[in-house]
Amino acid sequence: MKRIVLITGGARSGKSSYAEKMALSLSPTPVYMATAHIWDEEFRQRVIRHQQRRGPEWTNIEEEKYLSRHQVDGRVVLIDCVTLWCTNFFFALNSDVDASLQAVREEFDRLTRQDATFLFVTNEIGCGGTSENEIQRKFTDLQGWVNQYIASKADEVMLMVSGIPVKIK
């Protein structure tokens, strides 16, 4: 049953909606792992909108970093999102790209040892210009390398463009 799907794209490209529909097509009772840390009230409202979009068929797990501590064998699991997950490690590890990359890779490997279907939602933040901000450049590097790592392990990679899924792998 083990399967890894990476769904990537820009902001508001339809990644989460697509992933939710895919999860529901694979299981009547999928798991939603939300990695968000609530930074401010505007972000809290975004999270609430996401939560309200999902129905009672979902098992919701709020987990900022250590996804592998949850047993999901035999389940369909949507992880939304890798970008926020990376952010949590990046800030906890004082913007150290190497340490963050190692921590995310190790946690990804621990999680995906379980026999489950994993749908990872992530952002393609490296498609724009190069930031003048050093921290943003470091995070863009981290995000790009994490996306490449997950894509290398994925059975399928989908790129969302204006709400349209484009199969990459």
UniProtKB/TrEMBL annotation:
<dbReference type="GO" id="GO:0043752">
    <property type="term" value="F:adenosylcobinamide kinase activity"/>
</dbReference>
<comment type="pathway">
    <text>Cofactor biosynthesis; adenosylcobalamin biosynthesis; adenosylcobalamin from cob(II)yrinate a,c-diamide: step 5/7.</text>
</comment>
<dbReference type="Pfam" id="PF02283">
    <property type="entry name" value="CobU"/>
</dbReference>
<dbReference type="GO" id="GO:0008820">
    <property type="term" value="F:cobinamide phosphate guanylyltransferase activity"/>
</dbReference>
<comment type="function">
    <text>Catalyzes ATP-dependent phosphorylation of adenosylcobinamide and addition of GMP to adenosylcobinamide phosphate.</text>
</comment>
<keyword id="KW-0418">Kinase</keyword>
<protein>
    <recommendedName>
        <fullName>Adenosylcobinamide kinase</fullName>
        <ecNumber>2.7.1.156</ecNumber>
        <ecNumber>2.7.7.62</ecNumber>
    </recommendedName>
</protein>
<comment type="pathway">
    <text>Cofactor biosynthesis; adenosylcobalamin biosynthesis; adenosylcobalamin from cob(II)yrinate a,c-diamide: step 6/7.</text>
</comment>
<dbReference type="InterPro" id="IPR027417">
    <property type="entry name" value="P-loop_NTPase"/>
</dbReference>
<keyword id="KW-0548">Nucleotidyltransferase</keyword>
<keyword id="KW-0342">GTP-binding</keyword>
<keyword id="KW-0067">ATP-binding</keyword>
<keyword id="KW-0169">Cobalamin biosynthesis</keyword>
<keyword id="KW-0547">Nucleotide-binding</keyword>
<dbReference type="InterPro" id="IPR003203">
    <property type="entry name" value="CobU/CobP"/>
</dbReference>
<keyword id="KW-0808">Transferase</keyword>
<comment type="similarity">
    <text>Belongs to the CobU/CobP family.</text>
</comment>
